[in-house]
Amino acid sequence: MNCCWKLWTRTSKTKPSEKNLRHKIDFRVTHYAGDITKRPPTAGTLFKNSMQALVQNLQSKEPHYVRCIKPNEIKSATAFDDERVRHQVSYLGLVENVRVRRAGFAYRQRYDRFLKRYKMISQFTWPNFRSGTDKDAVRVIMDEKKFTDDVKYGKTKIFIRSPKTLFALENARNELIPGIVTLIQKTWRV
C-alpha cells in the first residue's frame, strides 16, 4: 500500500503486541512517522471540561434570588402571623435588599472583604494600601479599572450594578494569582 495512513482494527490480522487495545474504544493508526494511539479522555479531563462549560454558562446569566417567608407555624393557608413575618423580613434584611435591587445593584460587599479579595489587581493597593481607609482603597481599584460608572459607595459597602463588572474583576484576579503563587514559592524556597 502506498497510503500514508493505515488503520489497524482488532481483527485476526492484528499483531500480538496490539492485543491490549480494546475493541471500539482504543485504536491505533500506523503512520510513516510512527504509531498514534488515541485513548479515551480521563476523568480529570472530563471534570475540567465540565467545570469550564459550567462557568461559561454561569457567566452568561444574571442571578435572581428567591426568598421564602413562612407565614405561620401551623402550616395553614388561612393563618397569617404578622409578628413572625416582620421578624423574618427584618432578619433577612429584605427591605434594604429590595431598595438596593430596585436601584439595580446586583452585588454588594463590605469594603474590607472586597479589598482583601481584589487588592492584587491594582499596583496601588498591592500588597498593602497605606493611603487611607479600605473605602479609599476600593475607590482606587475601581477608578484604575474604569468601573466608576457601574459602582456606588455606601458607608460600609460597595455596590456594583452589573455582574459583568464583577466577572471582569474576577478575571483580572485569576490572571494574577499564578504569578503571586510563584512569587510566594520563590520567597519561601530561598
Automatic annotation (TrEMBL):
Keywords attached to this entry: Actin-binding, ATP-binding, Motor protein, Myosin, Nucleotide-binding
SMART domains: MYSc
Entry GO terms, CC: cytoplasm; microvillus; myosin complex; plasma membrane
Pfam families: Myosin_head
GO biological process terms on file: actin filament organization; actin filament-based movement; endocytosis
InterPro entries to which the protein is assigned, alphabetical: Kinesin_motor_dom_sf, Myosin_head_motor_dom-like, P-loop_NTPase
Name of protein: Myosin motor domain-containing protein
